[in-house]
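TASK: fixed-backbone design
INPUT:
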């Protein structure tokens, strides 16, 4: 459900090691490819299991893709910003995982999941009234964006506005609509939006986002000023590349972080799963090699955090796989 947010794994920051594209082995009949760099040691064979956990990115490989409200500057009154910031103040990654589960697994509507969350957290309590008027909240075409858009609707309604939610599609469609005022608010992701606006405004080749959320948001706000978009406060919740293992795998090998995975599981038995482009992308296999020193025995070409990767983990055909950090698969009962 995350593919609508990022069409591919972001290519931000030139961290790919030299030689990453060289020496690829031939694909086997199983779709598993030989490693680009020889693995040493035994590694950690896959372990089947149902519950998935995300290994902690303890060396900050990923950029700060925190949820943040994007607002057309003409309607970014103090009351609008304050109402939306109340969502950011309570939304962290585990809560967002549970919200995604409510819709993707428990089959609730985005509206129902948002209303339950709002009521449980008292989000609409004490919201200051604004001048009123009509506001359209845009949403991307994936579950998470729809849920957050519904949370924004609840907040802005409490602030005295007449609010509708409109699903628009991907960023290439809704960002111009936000600039023009055809929609007034949309949930965004700090690092990804910063790089998008940098490309649109001709900001050069150097990345403006980083693992540092404060620096990333400062850059984002500067770029937003150029196109008439303001931003509220970032939430603690982040939707970014994450690397999942089964709980059984984590317990057997004693790994909870990517550093522990590299230290204990570099070797021939370890199978990494993800989309084909993962092998050369700086926030996927190439980044794991350079930042953590992880060496895997083989790579299995699957999908981008989708059912193939999650099935591979649960069935015990891959050791570790790329599954986005807010995926419902991480939810506990």
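OUTPUT:
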């Amino acid at each position: 459900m995350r593919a609508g947010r990022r069409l591919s794994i972001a290519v931000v920051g030139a961290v790919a090691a030299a030689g990453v594209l060289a020496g690829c082995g031939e694909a086997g009949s199983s779709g598993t490819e030989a490693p680009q760099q020889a693995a040493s040691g035994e590694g950690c064979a896959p372990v089947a299991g149902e519950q998935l956990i995300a290994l902690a990115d303890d060396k900050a490989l990923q950029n700060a893709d925190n949820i943040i409200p994007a607002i057309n500057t003409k309607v970014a009154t103090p009351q609008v910003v304050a109402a939306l910031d109340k969502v950011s103040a309570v939304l962290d990654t585990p809560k967002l995982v549970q919200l995604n589960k409510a819709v993707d697994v428990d089959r609730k509507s985005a509206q129902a999941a948002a209303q339950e969350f709002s009521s449980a957290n008292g989000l609409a309590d004490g919201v200051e009234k604004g001048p009123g008027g009509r506001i359209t909240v845009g949403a991307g075409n994936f579950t998470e964006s729809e849920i957050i858009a519904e949370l924004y609707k609840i907040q802005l309604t409490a602030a005295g506005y007449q609010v509708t939610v409109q699903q628009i599609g991907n960023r290439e469609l809704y960002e111009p609509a936000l600039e023009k005022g055809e929609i007034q608010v949309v949930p965004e992701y700090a690092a990804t939006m910063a790089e998008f606006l940098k490309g649109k405004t001709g900001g050069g080749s150097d990345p403006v986002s980083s693992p540092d959320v404060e620096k990333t948001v400062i850059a984002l706000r500067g770029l937003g000023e150029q196109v008439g978009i303001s931003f509220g406060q970032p939430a603690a919740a982040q939707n970014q590349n994450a690397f999942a293992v089964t709980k059984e795998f984590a317990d057997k090998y004693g790994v909870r972080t990517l550093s522990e995975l590299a230290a204990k599981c570099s070797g021939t038995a370890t199978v990494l799963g993800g989309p084909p482009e993962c092998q050369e992308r700086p926030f996927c296999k190439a980044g794991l090699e350079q930042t953590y020193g992880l060496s895997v025995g083989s790579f299995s070409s699957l999908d981008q955090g989708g059912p193939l990767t999650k099935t591979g983990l649960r069935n015990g055909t891959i050791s570790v796989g790329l599954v986005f950090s807010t995926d419902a698969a991480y939810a506990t009962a």
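COMMENT: The first helix runs from residue 78 to 90.
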